Amino acid sequence: MFTGIVEELGEITAVENLGDSCRFRVRGPVVTEGAKHGDSIAVNGVCLTVVEHDADWFTADVMAETLDRSSLGALAEGSRVNLERPMALGARLGGHIVQGHVDGTGQVLERKPSENWEIIRISLPADLTRYVVEKGSVTVDGISLTVVDAGPDYFTVSLIPTTLALTTLGIKQPGDPVNLEVDVVAKYVERLLANSGQGAGQ
Predict the structure, then answer these.
(1) CA atoms of 141 and 43, how far apart (whole Å)
(2) What distance in Å separates the CA atoms of residue 145 and residue 192, rounded to the nearest whole number?
(3) Are 94 and 3 in contact (CB under 8 A)?
(4) What is the DSSP-derived secondary structure letter of residue 70?
């Protein structure tokens, strides 16, 4: 379980093609501190398992399903990535509950800079629109963000200078893909209402 508070802006230093999967080597001295084989680390919001590690890097295997359903398939040597270790029990929940299970991908549509912040508009797949609401939470490339405006096929977020400086959203440009994870609480509520006969359309 993660919180969507990015700990470090890491870098893909190698990509090994394994046929139906690949292995990433990721530089990230903060998240590898104390890491062990089998630990989880979120890479752009995708929960991956540590295979090997050293003082400032780790490797993780990514299967074809994950490559196809997330933006990780577009990563190459030199790509910057958001990194976060799982939340420790008893720690503060600074963002919101993030599973590291990507629901879909969007695309940066527009950037509107202001004096002290920047508005970014991101496309939203049709099957996820019902989970994204104004002032609700959404995870973009592993970053916990608050929705400013929720449209029929897009949403916007407002980014402060710290987020722009310390995450990939500071360098993403229109056309770039991003991983999206909607609020898991909304999905559970939907399922519970459907099972009780009170779902949409009831």
Answers:
(1) 8
(2) 25
(3) yes
(4) S
Per-residue pLDDT tens for 29-81? 999 998 999 999 999 999 999 999 998 999 999 999 999 899 999 999 999 99
Distance from C-alpha of 34 to C-alpha of 66, rounded to nearest angstrom = 26
Reference 129, options 114, 147, 115, 116; nearest CA is: 147
Contact between residue 153 and residue 129 where contact means Cβ atoms under 8 Å apart? yes
25-53 burial: b if 16+ Cβ within 10 Å, else e: bbbbeebbeebeeebbbbbbbbbbebeeb
> H or E element: which one contains 60?
strand 57-63
pLDDT at 88: 75
Q: Phi and psi (nearest 5°) for 23?
A: -120, 125
Q: Partners of 84 in the beta sheet? A: 42
Q: Give me the phi and psi of 87, to 5 degrees please.
A: -70, 135
CA dihedral 79, 85, 86, 90 (to 10 degrees): -150
Beta strands in 36-92 (DSSP E): 40-43, 46-53, 57-63, 80-84
Residue type, 92: R
Q: In the chain, which ranges are continuous DSSP H helix?
A: 64-69, 161-166, 184-195
Low-confidence ranges of the chain (pLDDT < 50): 202
Rounded Cα gap, residues 161 and 24, in angstroms: 29
- What are phi and psi for residue 58, nearest 5 degrees? -145, 160
The pLDDT value recorded for residue 99 is: 84
Residues 6+ apart with CB under 8 A from 160: 116, 117
